[in-house]
Write a structure and sequence with these properties.
CATH superfamily of the largest domain: DNA methylase specificity domains
Number of domains: 3
Largest sheet: 4 strands, antiparallel
Structural class: alpha+beta
Helix content: 25-40%
Oligomer: single chain
Order of helices and strands: EEEEEEEEHHEHEEEHEEEHEEEEHHHEH
Strand order of the largest sheet: 2-8-5-6
Number of helices: 9
Number of strands: 20
Radius of gyration: 27 Å
CATH topology of the largest domain: Adenine-n6-DNA-methyltransferase TaqI, Chain A, domain 2
């Protein structure tokens, strides 16, 4: 923390702006039909029919999770691995909540095993304390940002559910069908076909089906460099299927040319199959060359028969993801090797419908992506505001 004290602020020990009390075991008051929240070190852990404190407070973990303070404004019960705070009329509880979050309490951990904080350590923390009116304004600003974050997260959760529902509906029933048939994937539209991935390869729906370089061909850590041919691992692919090319390590063109498995390229569908199984990505069209690691498989489709964007969405859907889970359930290893992938079933609608289905799904995905971006921007804004407001760098 900066030693510079803004004009009108004071550097105070925590003990002078809040009183920390020990929580208590909830065993005697726990009741699933209770009306009071039981607060643990990382959130709400049940209901009680009595409360321990009935005024606004901040609960801080004493053992276990010590770096996630919780603000609560209703009567509650705090468990015995926490402290709960009482405040004088010179402290705004919500300001204190943001301030103590900003302190990064994990830096005060006193145990080598389970994280632990003593009350003496907490009480001795020096905190930059603004006058009461400024505390109120800081708390109001940060609360408004938190409300945007909570609202956006709620919208994202709903869109996630909508995406799953939309994909499940479209990838099993299609658009406007009235006639259905039984298949290896269950009931599907009569005009659709189902193939094992290996059969799609044989029949030229899929032109290339390769897993990444492994064994003696796998690059050593010392061979990676900052520039060259990007090397894509499962760890580079985010849950939504995106990846940032600049985050990938690289190999020299000479080393890449000597690999046994040829590189992937723009338009290829990537499936993670080892350790992290089931994430799906589509390499952007403008990427000329990218090396697939041993944790990934790449599929290159014949777009005259099988649209690559449809294949990407089909891989993300339940009909395919459930097959991956079944394969993993039959082994002790968290992987679905390429030999097993060739036996997995893929539904293939007529080409025009593949495009229409993909367009319908992509609309929901685009909304989800926009909301996720907004959430990330707002979280970054909050982080910046906390740094500016809670240190007095920006006065309100």
């Amino acid at each position: 923390m900066s030693e510079v004290v803004p004009e009108g602020w004071e550097l105070k020990n925590l003990s002078t702006i809040a009183t920390l009390e020990y929580g208590k075991s909830p065993n005697t008051v726990r009741n699933t039909e209770g009306v009071y929240d039981i607060v643990g070190t990382s959130g709400f852990v049940g209901k009680a029919d009595e409360y321990l404190w009935d005024k606004e407070s901040v609960v801080i973990g004493r053992k276990g999770t010590i770096n996630k303070p919780i603000h609560i404004s209703e009567p509650f019960w705090a468990i015995d691995t926490t402290y709960f705070s009482k405040f004088p009329n010179t402290t705004i509880p919500k300001w204190f909540y943001y301030q103590i979050c900003h302190e990064r309490l994990e830096n005060y951990n006193e145990a080598s095993g389970v994280p632990s904080l003593s009350r003496e350590t907490l009480n001795s923390i020096s905190i930059l304390t603004p006058p009461l009116p400024e505390q109120k304004k800081i708390a109001t600003i940060l609360t408004s940002v938190d409300e945007v974050i909570e609202k956006t997260q709620s919208q994202i959760d709903k869109l996630q559910d909508l995406k799953k529902g939309t994909m499940n509906e479209l990838l099993t029933k299609g658009i406007g069908h009235t006639e259905f048939k039984d298949s290896e994937l269950g009931r599907i539209p009569k005009s659709w076909e189902v193939f094992a991935a290996g059969s799609l390869l044989e029949n030229k729906y899929i032109l290339v089906l390769k897993d990444g370089n492994h064994g003696a061909q796998y690059p050593r850590q010392s061979e990676f460099q900052k520039r060259g041919i990007p090397f894509l691992s499962a760890s580079n692919i985010y849950e939504d299927g995106s990846f940032i090319l600049e985050e990938c390590p690289c190999l020299s063109e000479e080393r890449a040319a000597n690999l046994r498995i040829p590189p992937a390229r723009g338009g290829d569908v990537i499936l993670t199959h080892n350790a992290t199984v089931g994430r799906v990505s589509l390499i952007p069209d403008d990427v000329k060359t990218i090396i697939a690691s041993t944790s990934t498989t790449y599929y290159r489709t014949n777009n005259q028969k099988l649209n690559n964007r449809f294949l990407r969405r089909f891989f993300e859907g339940l009909p395919f993801q459930n097959q991956l889970k079944r394969v993993m359930g039959q082994t002790t290893r968290n992987q679905v090797p390429i030999t097993a992938q060739k036996d997995l079933f893929i539904a293939v609608p007529p080409l025009e419908e593949q495009v229409n289905l993909t367009t319908a799904i992509d609309g929901t995905v685009a909304l989800l992506s926009a909301k996720t971006k907004k959430l990330q921007q707002t979280q970054y804004l909050k982080k910046s505001l906390m740094q500016d407001l809670l240190t007095g760098k920006v006065r309100v």
